[in-house]
Every structure is written in C-alpha cells, then in structure tokens.
Amino acid sequence: MNTIDARRNKIVEYVNNKGSVGVDELCKQLNVSEMTVRRDLNILDRQGLLKRIHGGATANLGRCYEPPLFLRSMANVESKKKIGAAAADYVYNGSSVILDSGTTVASIIPNLLGKHNLTIVTSSLMIANEVLKTFVVGSDLRLIVSGGIVRQGEISLIGPYAQATYDVMYVDVAFLGIGGLHPENGLTEFNLDDTQVKKHIIRCAKKRIALADSHKIGVTAMNQVAPIEALDMIITDKNANPEILESFRDKGIKIIIT
User: Fold this and answer.
1) Helix (H, G, I), strand (E, B), or coil: what is residue 96?
2) Pick from 47, 240, 204: which is nearest to 255 by CA?
3) Residue among 244, 182, 249, 177 at smallest CA distance from 209
4) How many of the other CB atoms lie within 10 Å of CB of 155?
5) In the β-sheet with 171-176, what is the strand arrangement from edge to edge?
6) What is the CA radius of gyration of the chain?
7) The dihedral of CA 105, 107, 110, 115: what is its sign?
8) Is the pLDDT score of 16 beyond 80?
9) Is the dihedral angle over the CA atoms 206, 84, 124, 220 positive or is it negative?
10) pLDDT (tens digit, 9 = 90+) per residue, 23-75?
C-alpha cells in the first residue's frame, strides 16, 4: 500500500472512531497540510467512505454500512493479534474448528501452529488462503471450504450452498467475526447474506466464541444473527466498555480481555 492510501485509511479510521472531526485536527494528527487533508476528504467522500461537511468530515456509518475489508485489515492490528493469540488457547489437538469470515478471526491462524490433527472449516476465501500459506494442508491439518457464491469485496462465500455446509456437521468450536455485540440486540451483522451463514454456523458448534475488538462492543448493525445468549465466550481488548462487558457476564457469557 502506498503512502497516500495509508494516509487515507488513517483518516477513515480516525473519523469512524470519533464520529466527526475537523480539518485542523486531521492536519495535526497526520502532520500534513490543510490542502492535502481537504483533497483527501473530498476523494473519500466521493468513494462513500465518509461524509464531507463544512470544516471537516463525519462518519458515514448507517446500520447497513460495512467498512471495506481492506480498511478493516489496517485497523486495530495489535488488538486483533492479541485476541487471536488468546483465542488459540481454546483450540486443542484433534479439534474441529470453524473460522468465520473477518480480519479478527484471521488473526488466530498463526497461533494454531503447533496444534495437531485439526480440521478447519471456513466460508472465507481469505482465511482459507491464510491457512494454506501457514500450514502444510493434508498432513496434520484438514481444510474444508464451504460451497457458495463469492461475495465480492469481502471474499466470503454466501448463499444456500454455504449454509448447507454447516447443516451436516457438528464441530467443537466456532470462532465468529461479528459486526456488533449488544446486550439487548444480540449479535448483529451488516450484510443479510453473511447473517444467514452465521446463523447456520452457530447451530452446528458445541462452543461459540466471538472475537471482537472494542469497537464492536455495544454496536448494533442492521441484521440480527442471534441473541447474545447464543455465545459462550467473547474475547475482546482492554478498551471495551466495562459496563457492557459486565452486562454480558450477567447473561452467563465468559469474557476474556486481552
């Protein structure tokens, strides 16, 4: 990624985190000129990644807005690495594991090295590719990729063939990537097709663990996947809202903070 793209990714992440931000503040954060920031904001507005307003920008985050995969892969990288390392502690030799789509779920893959006789199931072509790059598949690890229709941009598999994959198996643990986790509104997703696949994943897993950085805690996206009680565990980072985490505990969900 070149310097300009990296700077614009930082702008989008900063605006999304704060909700709204002024040009002067972005100039200080990025150490660039006002002209550069204004040009970047105009381009990002045309791309639909934020909303340009007088003197700055606001987040363009409706409940069906899903940040692009390439932006999410750049966000909260260190938190995701720690979440992935903690998640690997719940994978044992001989386990059958579902790795859902998403950049936080992908962070678990390097931490599975040293585990033996694993079966990994996924509907994410990105995750399947990472598994292939990390492991010698077919010797000590079996990789199962669902069928389905490729969802452009997300590089995940959706539709009835993807859903049907999970209707004929029972796995030990599913690691779920999720758009939002809310005490009352439950697990929610931006995209309806992804939502349907996740519903089938939840039904076939003995243990269900959500991997979510703090920006997902307390968020409600458009489509409900399941009530929050469908989870056994949430692994998140230290910046998550403690009151919301306590409400999850009250519902019997184990919370791991990295």
Assistant:
1) strand
2) 240
3) 177
4) 15
5) 141-145, 118-122, 96-99, 171-176, 205-211, 233-236, 254-257
6) 19
7) negative
8) no
9) positive
10) 999 999 999 999 999 999 988 888 777 878 778 887 766 665 566 665 666 66
Length, in residues, of the chain: 258
Cα(first)–Cα(last) distance of the chain, in Å? 28
Token readout for 179 is 């758009």
Question: Hunting for tokens 């998640």 — which residue is that?
Answer: 87
Separation of alpha carbons 189 and 38, rounded Å: 32
CA 229 to chain centre: 19
Specify the pTM. 0.78
Per-residue pLDDT at 81 exceeds 90: yes
Q: Return d(Cα 130, Cα 203) in angstroms, integer.
A: 25
Q: Which two tokens stand for residue 178?
A: 């999720």
Question: What letter does residue 177 receive in the DSSP assignment?
Answer: P
The number of angstroms, rounded, from the C-alpha of 174 to the middle of its chain's C-alpha atoms is 14
